[in-house]
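REQUEST FORM: STRUCTURE PREDICTION
Request ID: SP-0412
Submitted by: Lab K.M.
Chain count: 1
Length (residues): 150
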Amino acid sequence: MTRVGGFGGERVARGPSSAGIDTPNGGIMDTTVQSGQGESLGITLSEVAAGEVRKFMSEEKMEGEAAGLRVSVVPGGCSGFEYALNLEPEARDDDFVLGSHGVRLFIDPFSAQYLEGVSIDYQSTFQGSGFTFDNPNATGGCGCGSSFAV
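STATUS: Completed
RESULT:
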C-alpha cells in the first residue's frame, strides 16, 4: 500500500464508495468507466477519503460543480512511479471523470492504465495521516512506501 498526503502538486510520502462516470447531463452512472477501446476503469474512493477531499476543496474554495480531484501516476521514486493528487477547477478534455461520494475524480489516459482497480482511502495515525492507495497492479514498491512498480 502506498501512502500520499497533500494537494496542489505537493506529494508527501507518509509510509480501499463506489466510483461512477459523470455524464454530460451531470448524472452519475455505473461504477466502471468504459473507454473508447473497450477497456474498463474501476477506481474506488472510500467515504472517509471523500470527506477529506471535500474538506480540502472547501478550504481551497473549490466548491463548484466542475471542480474535482486529479488522481494521477507520474514517473519517479525508487520504484518507478508515484501517485499525485491535485485539486483542479475542471476536467481536461481527454480525462475520465468519475464520481464517488460527491467527489469528482479526474483521471488522465496515461494514469488510467496504472489505476485500474485502485482503492483510495484516508488514514490517520499517531505517526501521520494521508491518502493510501491499494493497487492490485503494483508488483513492488520502495521501502518508505512512496513509490510503486508495475
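NOTES: Confidence is low (pLDDT under 50) at residues 1-39.
Reviewed by: T.R.
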